Amino acid sequence: MSSLSFDVLGWDSTWADSFAPHAAGGLTPGRVVRVDRGRCEVATGAEVLHAEYSRTDVCTGDWVALSGRYVHRVLPRRTALVRASASGVSSGQVLAANVDVVAVVIPCEAEIDLGRAERLLALAWESGARPVVVLTKTDSGADVGRALELLTGVAIGVDVIPTSARSGSGLDALAAELTGTVVLVGRSGVGKSTLASALTGADLAVREVRAADGKGRHTTVRRELLALRGGTGVLIDTPGLRGVGLHDAGDGVAMAFADVDALAADCRFGDCAHSGEPGCAVQAAIDAGLLAARRLESYRKLLRENEWAAARTDARLRSERRAKERSMHRQFRNQFNRPGHGRR
Q: Which top class of enzyme applies to this chain (predicted)?
């Protein structure tokens, strides 16, 4: 990989201030462009070098302090795209760090998976970055107008940009929206790698979707940071996300369903469950055809999932606290049960 300048990588005066204490200690700043099992590639502005790390939370997009070829410290993140860990543990998995734009990639198909789009938008809003929806494969023959109408209805306050990487349609409009650090998210086969190749000029591995079921095969196997064309920033391509669990994403869910929250504010009762209570503005909107019943159910589903994830996290923290207390008690008992303790 060729060297990436600090300007393209996103280094600014705020990062310089954050790094100042490490600079005083003789450390070198760099940005992680790829992570692979205890080793990572870090761009220092002058070169991209291989570095080792012992921390488990180093992620593509992190700014780090290097001691030679070792990651000594990860600088505090401005934003982070986090999903529930695929391993089932209660802690979240950081997919990308210090992101400015989250591009939610949805293919133009006869049946748009609106539930997945809403889930990815909640994830994007929670990250602290700006979401953008990218409708890919508009040359597939599916009804583009209908797909745009459906996505616009769930992407509240978010730009929806139709594109075709094959024909080049919409890519200029998309490129104008993608500045700073951009991450692409979506399931396999939606066209992320093809889109990334068009936006960066990199020759990324792209394989056709399976003819049998139309589903894509994984082409991107790890998250990697690449320079955007024109030097406007960098892009992080991600492997396809089969499962997208929420982790501590209450604010993101609220932002993704801002229309439901706005209606709920007009309900007669502040604790309205929107399940038949008198004066329910949400149900009134559904009855009037202004809000899809499916959208309310999706909102409830994501709220329940997020509450369950939060309960698991609380249980884990309580368990860790109890384990720490038991360890301290054992140390205390061992100290006072040593032979000769207390004798003079």
A: hydrolase
252 is in an annotated binding site: no
To the question of whether residue 68 is assigned a binding role by annotation, the answer is no
Please check if 213 is assigned to a binding site.
no
CA-CA-CA-CA torsion sign (204, 35, 177, 250): positive
Residue 223 known to bind ligand: no
By DSSP bridging, strand 130-136 and strand 101-107 are parallel
Asked whether residue 226 is domain-assigned, the answer is yes
Domain limits at 36? 6-74
187 belongs to an annotated ligand binding site: yes
| Residue 197 annotated as part of some ligand binding site | no
The reply to whether 179 sits in an annotated binding site is no
Whether the pTM exceeds 0.90: the reply is no
Question: Are 272 and 226 within one domain?
Answer: no
Q: How many residues does the chain have?
A: 344
Determine how many CB atoms are found less than 10 A away from the CB of residue 205: 10
Report whether 188 belongs to an annotated binding site.
yes
- Per-residue pLDDT tens for 249-304? 899 999 999 999 999 999 999 999 999 899 999 999 999 999 999 999 999 999 99
Q: Is 87 annotated as a binding residue?
A: no
Residue 217 domain flag: yes
Q: Are residues 65 and 98 in the same domain?
A: no
127 marked among binding-site residues: no
Say if residue 86 is in the same domain as residue 219: yes
